[in-house]
Amino acid sequence: MADILLIDDMKGVRRSVSTVLKRAGHNVTEADEGGAGLELLKGGTRFDLVITDMLMPKHDGMDVLLFLEQMRNRPKVLVISGGGSQISADEAFTLARSKADATLAKPFDNADLLAEVDKLLKVSA
Questions:
Q1: For 74, which DSSP code?
Q2: Under a CB-based contact definition with an 8 Å cutoff, are residues 9 and 53 in contact?
Q3: Cα–Cα dist 65/1, whole Å
Q4: Is the bond preceding 75 in cis, omega lying within 30 degrees of 0?
Q5: What is the pTM (predicted TM-score) of this model?
Q6: Dihedral sign, Cα of residue 10, residue 65, residue 35, residue 7
Q7: Range of 34's domain?
Q8: How far apart are CA 47 and CA 40, in angstroms?
Q9: How far apart are CA 9 and CA 12, in angstroms?
Q10: Residue 38 near residue 20 (C-beta atoms within 8 A)
């Protein structure tokens, strides 16, 4: 069981990803955009894994990645993205790959999500 921070501006994505992760036995804290996720991280809450969307209004996934990069005991990071109106998922992932531990393109199935999460958590264990 891991403590996971899930940051995504799309309520439906947060709800479905959170449900899958909770059914797998994880504790999930949700944030509806990058700024809310940053506040949780700055507040000292410890997470084993951060799952963040790359493209969000206000503070985006890159803001989250840059903050995490400065942390001492940085949690593992999984970036999820389906692209947006001004940038494709491939372009978003190109930006994220240098700072994230893994990426997963939306839409993804539950098995792929759980496999990626399990892989990242085993590496950090």
A1: P
A2: yes
A3: 23
A4: no
A5: 0.89
A6: positive
A7: 3-124
A8: 10
A9: 9
A10: no
Report the distance separating Cα 31 and Cα 28, nearest Å: 10
> Which residue type occupies 10?
M
CB-CB contact of 65 with 96 (8 Å): yes
Positive or negative torsion for Cα 26, 105, 40, 18: negative
Number of structural domains the chain divides into: 1
Considering only CA atoms, which of 44, 39, 33, 36 is closest in space to residue 3?
44
Give pLDDT, residue 56: 84
What is the Cα Rg of the chain in Å? 13
Q: Please, what are the averages of pLDDT over each run of 10 residues along the chain (125 residues)? A: 96 96 98 96 94 87 91 92 59 70 90 97 72
* Domain CATH number, residue 57: 3.40.50.2300
Integer Cα distance of 80 and 18 in angstroms = 13
Are residues 104 and 78 in contact, defined by beta-carbon separation less than 8 angstroms? yes
